[in-house]
Design brief:
Ribonuclease iii, N-terminal Endonuclease Domain, Chain A, 2 domains, 3-stranded antiparallel sheet
């Protein structure tokens, strides 16, 4: 497929056809490839994204107080959320990298993909206006917000699990490291999350102890919710 055809599909997916295609190419150019690259557009897109998401959730969640809105926005614009959207858009396949960066897996690196998506939003803003950038943000985020659970509000798994157990007046979960492997700069952690009352021992993996604990807490919370549903239906 010709590269411009790939751009066409990408533009269709985000809901914006660029009048100035050079802006899109710049947004998808990593600094390892050439100049102009996407770092200035990423700076601009970061501001556009934060404002657009704030407006979107302000309208969709009229009952939420400021603290909950702030937490929800933070969870929608962080690297994890942006990387997920970028992967769904196959952004890494469209980007231009230097040979070294490409060989090292730059087209799959979450930090690079999330920055590139912000750069695309900056490019949309310059190619059109803020209203159009808001439309693109809505196109990307509405599938997530349609399934929004206002009880969780994007809280991280450890917080959800802790609040759930506290609501039942139960002891908090205990976390312990099972194993640590790999060199210092690329360690992998395996952590256990134990919830004694429910006789649950969930395992999580991650590139840091914190990430592994979050993964274990997510699994434990999932198991507990299934148990709760099962109990309530019998």
């Amino acid at each position: 497929m010709h590269k411009d055809a790939k751009y066409d599909q990408f533009c269709h997916n985000i809901g914006h056809s660029f009048k100035n295609l050079a802006l899109l190419r710049e947004a998808l150019t990593h600094r390892s490839h050439s100049t102009p690259h996407n770092e200035r557009l990423e700076f601009l897109g970061d501001g556009v994204l934060n404002c657009a998401v704030a407006g979107l959730i302000f309208k969709l969640c009229p009952e939420l107080p400021e603290g909950d809105l702030s937490r929800l926005r933070a969870n929608l614009v962080n690297q994890k959320a942006l990387n997920k959207l970028a992967l769904e858009l196959n952004l890494g396949e469209l980007m231009r990298f230097g040979d070294g960066e490409l060989k090292s897996g730059g087209n799959r690196r979450p930090s690079i993909l999330s920055d590139a998506l912000e750069a695309v939003l900056g490019a949309v803003y310059l190619d059109s206006d803020f209203a159009k950038a808001e439309e693109v943000v809505a196109t990307l985020y509405m599938p997530l917000l349609d399934n929004l659970d206002q009880k969780t509000l994007g809280k991280d798994p450890k917080t959800l699990l802790q609040e759930y157990l506290q609501g039942l007046r139960l002891a908090l979960p205990e976390y312990s490291i099972i194993s640590t492997v790999g060199k210092a700069h690329e360690k992998k952690f395996k952590v256990a999350c134990v919830v004694t009352k429910f006789n649950i021992r969930a395992i999580g993996d991650g590139g840091s102890r914190r990430c592994a604990e979050q993964a274990a807490a997510k699994e434990a919370y999932k198991i507990i919710k299934k148990l709760s549903i099962s109990t309530s239906s019998t």
